[in-house]
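User: Modeling request: complex.
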Amino acid sequence: MPPATPDLASLRRRIQAIESGGGPAAVLPLGIAAVDAALPGGGLVLNGLHEIMGAGTDEEDGAVAAAFAAGLLARLARRRGAPILWCLAADDLYGPGLAAHGLMPDRLVLARCRNDGDILWAMEEGARSAVLAAVLGEIGLLAPTAGRRLQLAAEASGVTVIALRRWRSGELAARQREAPSPALTRWRIAALPSRDAAAPGIGTPLWRVELLRCRGGVPANWVMEEGDATGHVALAAALADGPAAPRRRAG
Amino acid sequence: MSLWLPRWPTDRLRRAAARADRVDPQPRSPSPCPLPERRGFERKRGGGGGKASEGESPLVTAVTIGSRRLVAAANDAALAVGIVPGLPLADAQAFLPGLAVRAADAPGDAAALRRLAEWCGRWSPWTAPDGLDGIVFDITGCAHLRGGESRLAAEILGRIAGEGYAARAAIADTVGAAWALARFGKAGRGPVIVPPGGTRAALEPLPVAALRLPAEMAAGLERLGLKRIADLCAMPRGALAERFGPALAERLDQALGAAGEPVSPLRSVPARRARLAFAEPIATAEDLARACRHLVAELCRGLAAEGTGARRLELACYRVDGAVERAAIGTARASRDARHLTRLLEEKLAAIDPDLGIEAMVLAAPVAEPLRAAQLSLSRLREREGTHAKHGEGEGMGQLAPGAKPSPRSSPVNGRGGMVAADDAELAALLDRLGNRLGLANLRRLEPRASHWPERAVAVLPAAEKAPQDAASWPRDRLRPVRLLAPPEPIEATAPVPDDPPILFRWRRRLHRVRRADGPERIAGEWWRRPSPATPDDIRDYYRVEDAEGRRFWLYRAGLYRPDRPARWFLHGLFA
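Assistant: Request completed. Predicted assembly structure:
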């Protein structure tokens, strides 16, 4: 009998450790067991580039995606106690709405840029400055080389970089949606109709959260409900009775 | 010092014509002193009287006053045959049938004079246009840099004459005296220079018009036999003031130095400046960058000695062709970190066009604020160690005393106060880098305001400003959208029942079917902000609606429901 073959999961962990150049990368757990289990290392890798996009008409507006990102940023800001840089071209971000999703705008610096080029430049400047907790850029066109530069800057400084994709035209959306990107993860967030048909009013928001791509992990998707409207916890528990994530393999 | 350009309008025209005529200029060489307009004009040291070159044809500019066309300015050839400013144009043309006439361009002349005065800033920081045909310099403390007053004046006159302008200059203790002597002094070869204390003696033989008096007052004085300034000086002061008003006495006092006369310079002159002049004009990007580093280092040394940091830096590059290229940077907070400031400035250098070359650069810090030494030393230290310092254990050790030199060992664990200061400095440096490309006004911070009106519930402030402690708090409920459209976008909505939410609306050419809705939430503008005749738009009925796909919108109907007119609906925000 040969010695016990190492199981697939531990092998994968070792490969990942080699890929990330040494010890396990620092991660940000999202606080939802099902999601954290799908992410290698048990959470979002801190020093890396992550992509978040909307679905349907929200690809242009990015409201749902922004709320999801705000939840992540709130956790990052709390963890590091450092400010966040949010680069945007359209001046439509609303502070009270961010606060409602857990991100207090007090430590937020908004950088208003003229175009995608300036946004990329500002994101890279921010990613190189270790004083920030995270940098978010609302970006339309993200060339692979530009994404790679962001990823390298994030690796070097430890600043988490989030590319919130906002496409101004359907043609750009079609090209960019499937384009390869050097991001560690790619998320797509879509609004779902509220569940409880009997309740009056619009109720709590319901999202489909898709992990489209994940380096060292497998794609998955969940239905999430944002738990309490007043709390700091911005990402809600995955619904117990929601459709199960189609997970082909244990990750 | 006063510089007089007696033929300014006609010289400008002639120079413009010369430039247009120059069909095939020799290849431009940037050295040693390529003033392109020197052709055809011999350089006159002192430019006494500004005689034009031979063969110049008579030229006048004309201005229309009422129904009459008058000569506004004339060149030397025209003056020689008796055509003087103020002569009716018809008379002038009768004297000299071949007279060239151009329309006077007073605003253009004034603007050009301003540019020339700005360019003259290379000799003295304190220059200003003086009337329509002169430039006044305050050369206090500047003359010795050029080897004395006479050499400075000769250099200025030489350069101005080289540009093709007739010019005369005088240096005196007072602005008034310099003005008088530049215009009425003996037409010698060089500039008129009055030694300190010799003002009165120099002024006494001049005519009274030299006192910058209105023409009719000067004529009136001459009728009374008071032809020279000496005559005026001999008169009792009270009688003069009674007869001619206080203006005459004031002008006399100003010329003699008994009354002060402030000169306001073109640009405010910052006290903190560094200057660099080049023996050979520079034009390459590397040279510019090197000069910049040198200037910043010099300025920072000055700031450090003073205990201040710059909030704004302005770079002026004086080109050999008489233009001034400028660049400016701002910082979010005071800084005298030479590396940081150089980096900011270097990004602006690309916009500077050296053209034929730059012969002098001045870097000034017009805005500076006190800056403690400790902040700088800590951030420097971190830079040197190249590590990201961690929070120390000790609480409250705070910052180093100003001026104390931290030893490399002790400071990384120097308590939270020090590290926070270093972090703040690093954040400020980041904001500066971003702000100088994006504009500092485009770096913002949001602050809650106590207002129900959605647009006024958030204040957008510059990011560099410190957040006050007692701000209003952010709402924690989900009644407000993540994105707010500014301005609200009009939509077509169908609402069958007056105070109900719409069942259908069209936004950006897309139809949304409303499945669920909350509302209305009536928001009225604050009464003290409303325009006095109240408009219906001061009241909005907001609805939060969810469409069939689950997207959530914030809609409102402007004004109260009126059966006699269609409701106006707007989409104001997007929920997550």
